[in-house]
Design goal:
By secondary structure, the protein is of the alpha+beta class. The protein is built from nine helices and 20 strands. The protein has helices at about 45-50, 95-105, 110-120, 135-150, 165-185, 195-200, 220-225, 230-235, 270-275, and strands at about 5-10, 20-25, 30-35, 60-65, 65, 80, 155-160, 185-190, 205-210, 210-215, 240-250, 255, 265, 280-285, 290-295, 305-315, 320-325, 330-335, 345-350, 355-360. A six-stranded mixed sheet has the order 6-7-8-3-9-10, with helices on both faces. A five-stranded antiparallel sheet has the order 13-12-11-14-20. A five-stranded antiparallel sheet has the order 15-19-16-17-18, with no helix packed on it. Helix 5 (about 165-185) links the parallel strand 7 and strand 8 (about 185-190). Helix 2 packs across helix 3 (about 110-120). The longest helix is centred in the middle third of the chain and has 18 residues, at about 165-185. It is elongated. The model is unreliable at about 370-375 (pLDDT under 50).
Amino acid sequence: MARVELEDIRKVYDNGHVAVHNATFDIDDGELVVLVGPSGCGKSTTLRMLAGLETITAGTLRIGDQVMNDVSPKDRDIAMVFQNYALYPHMTVFDNMAFGLKLRKFPRDEIKKLVQQAAEILGIEDILSRKPKQLSGGQRQRVAVGRAIVRKPKVFLFDEPLSNLDAKLRVQMRTEISKLHRRLGATMVYVTHDQVEAMTMGDRIVVMRDGHIQQIDAPLRLYNHPVNQFVAGFIGSPSMNFIQGDLVREEGAHFRAGGDAFSLPLHDTHLATLADYRATEVVLGIRPEDLYVAGSPFAPEPVALIDSTLEVLEPVGNEIFVYTRTGEHVMVARVLPQSLPEPGQAIRLAMDLTKLHFFDVATGTTVGMADSASQEA
């Protein structure tokens, strides 16, 4: 396995479009790093530059101690797992997994040993004689992963490998890939647009937008301490609620939502953060799980009570998503199953005052995060 280093990596296409702007980050030996972001953010382009499938316009890529900018893909000692599996339909599972080893002229006994080992790891020993058309989507994905494992590369690259699977199988396969990572101790780079995959699989997550790296952090730090409004909204499902309003410092500091929909006193947690913030307009953020139905025994202290109108209920079994409107502001709360009013009726929410986030209206950056240890581009 090997360490991967990207230093000011840039990709500019012939038409002048800049797909990746000066990406700089390291991937430690044995680490699983996830690149995540919306379509068109540059995550797959970054992965393809790692693989050698896209040329690097500027910057330096190292795998181990070797600069890889001009090294051909076949000589980079990487293995890539694609979204579409890319299996040869006329070959058996065994032959698909063995194909790369045969090209490298491995001895027949060694090929058989390596394929058998990979098949045992992935639990596909009983389908080695089948052809791809006889396999389910999950089995095909395992074969594609197995073909990568047998090569024992320095780095594994995964390009949205679970996108073609149904929801239940996606959960199963992401668990399998996580277990595989722990078992192999392999260096892995995983690209996805699914923030749940990113949060559950990555040692660290690289959040990208429009070719720029927004934040690089461990999953829970990314969730609890986003550096800007984009990261806060992208990570988490349902998304963080955002409410634009004003900071009022008369008769005690408080936040006043736009349209005078409601007012919140500022908790001591935030007074120091906002002490040097001179703008009056600000965006407040609150995650759905930090909103409660008033009177809930699970609501912490201190809270602020907000009178709202219930618009939509989405029961999903172990929890309910409650969509409400207060003036011009729509908010969603994630609550435990309980008796609730009918849509169209009044509902009072309790907002945890210790869990508020504040963002600058003009820049979207998190207020008070200027000295964050997180890496930004």
